[in-house]
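User: I'm putting together notes for a lab meeting next week and I want to include a structural view of one of the chains we've been expressing. I don't have a solved structure, so I'd like a prediction I can at least talk through. The sequence is below, exactly as it appears in our construct file.
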Amino acid sequence: EVNEVLAENGISIVDVSTRSRETDDRGDVYMMALEAFSDGKAESLRAPLEAVANKLGVDVEVHILDETVI
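Assistant: Thanks for the context. Below is the predicted structure for the 70-residue chain, given as structure tokens.
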């Protein structure tokens, strides 16, 4: 459902990474990072992504990266 929100807003995923780790208090934690080109739409995605996260019982964070390409 996260990818549906991204697709509906014309967001292109350019990289995906996953990892897992064991924590003392929460057991195994699985993480997925999506790097996406948002064309300035990142802030407007916070609310719809949080709604999906609440529905799925997961955490979603949006971090804006520097757009400078070297």
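A couple of points you could mention at the meeting. Residues 42-56 form the longest helix (15 residues). Helices lie at 2-8, 42-56.

User: Perfect, that's what I needed.
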